[in-house]
Amino acid sequence: MGNFLPNELIERLRSRTDFDSEAFAEIHERGDKVTSVRLNPAKPAKLDLALSETIPWCKEGYYLTDRPVFTLDPLYHAGTYYVQEASSMFVSYIIRALGLDHKEDVRALDLCAAPGGKSTLLNSVLNNSSLLISNEVIKSRALILVDNLVRWGNPNVVVTNNDPSAFSRLPGYFDVMVVDAPCSGSGMFRKDPGAIDEWSLANVKLCSDRQRRILADAQACLKTDGYLIYSTCSYSEEENEDIVDWLITTHGFESISVDIEDSWGITKTRSRGKQGEGYRFYPHQVKGEGFFLSVLRKKTSEETFSRRKIKKEKSDVPKGSIDKWVKDPSLFYTFMQGDNIHIVPKEMEEDLAIIRSVLYLKNAGTNVGKWSGRELIPAHDLALSNHINMGIEAQEVDLDSALNFLRKETIDIDLFSNTKNGWCLVRYRGINLGWVKVLSNRINNYYPKEIRIMNL
Ligand code: SAM
Hints:
CATH class of the largest domain: Alpha Beta
GO molecular function: RNA binding; RNA methyltransferase activity
Number of helices: 11
Largest sheet: 10 strands, mixed
Number of strands: 22
Shape: globular
Family: Belongs to the class I-like SAM-binding methyltransferase superfamily. RsmB/NOP family.
Strand content: 25-35%
InterPro entries: Methyltr_RsmF_N (IPR031341), MeTrfase_RsmB-F_NOP2_cat (IPR049560), MeTrfase_RsmB-F_NOP2_dom (IPR001678), Nol1_Nop2_Fmu_2 (IPR027391), RCMT (IPR023267), SAM-dependent_MTases_sf (IPR029063)
Bound molecules: S-adenosylmethionine
Distance between the termini: 31 Å
Pfam families: Methyltr_RsmB-F, Methyltr_RsmF_N, Methyltranf_PUA
CATH topology of the largest domain: Rossmann fold
């Protein structure tokens, strides 16, 4: 397959001193598949995965010796881990190297977030007191992003569906912004050889222009001294180091250098003009796919967002409605999103009002359920929440019954002979999968049909 790598890409890479064209071609020819997962620290579980060594730059990340059918693992659907390419987990190393994991009240933006690899990572690595805004401009992809963050189970996340330009309405608001930009995708050639035919120099140019547009449109929302973590899965300088140069010259950013271990095989690179630092991942040097990342700090002065402008809204949530469903309800601010009652950590009430006033929210915090006028109808999101009251009626099931449940098939009533009638959690290896309603003569399966397992 090495022969089929685009000549124009290889020719350009050959001019780089850090590039070994033979080793690069050989690794593509071999086409090895590297599979890795990142565990959810909030949902420790007994996994059947063939975990081998940890990923050196991410302590929650593991290589697998074998790729299972993830769809047939209930613990995958329950959000105990995320299947993520190893190189991109480097973002966790960067967050920790910048000390943002220990900092309280960080406001983080993941601007190009679907399907949610970097967002679930940020949500785990940042402190619980931090707020993550996870944005995706494409509507259908924003839904997948919501599903993945719901699985992850944390309440300190807001998913938005906006064009990057909308973020200029929040000048000086964020402490850190991750821009994992849409790119020409050459870094994925080994994993997805089909992408090779799509590659062209014209597309690299188009992507490079779009990356500048995205960054120019959104950069005002970053505070002075706030961090920009820019990444792509492209090898092209036009989308990587040249963008770093442009950020330094046009938008007053400075390059931040982070120490890394030589043994990891990551290549430090510098931009042609301003010598801005970046990190290149070549698949013949690291156990992972092609990736580029650079860290910058905003040096231009940006007025810090003024919180005084916002008036607090009166809550229309019925008093006590979430009390028996949520662990420590007093820790949360409750609010209505459509017909549903949602929670976010109390300290985030004001931020939520600010975000709501300028962005289009797809999901905010955790959806606890719908208020019927008399009682709460629990949401699927609550079942997967890390803040559900674990005293709620629940039934542990075996693998076959768990898969039946996830396929939204009929559930055997005998499995629930020891539970009370009413709402009941279905649990596999101690981890919640979703809700059933136990009636005297049958079990109603409330697994959402949009995410049920199909054809397997
Ligand atoms: N960060 C994601 C993750 O780790 O799972 C992957 C992001 S992917 C590389 C780039 C994302 O940018 C895609 O979800 C794509 O829909 C979105 N995108 C495409 N065009 C865009 C644009 N003009 N502005 C902002 N985002 C865009």
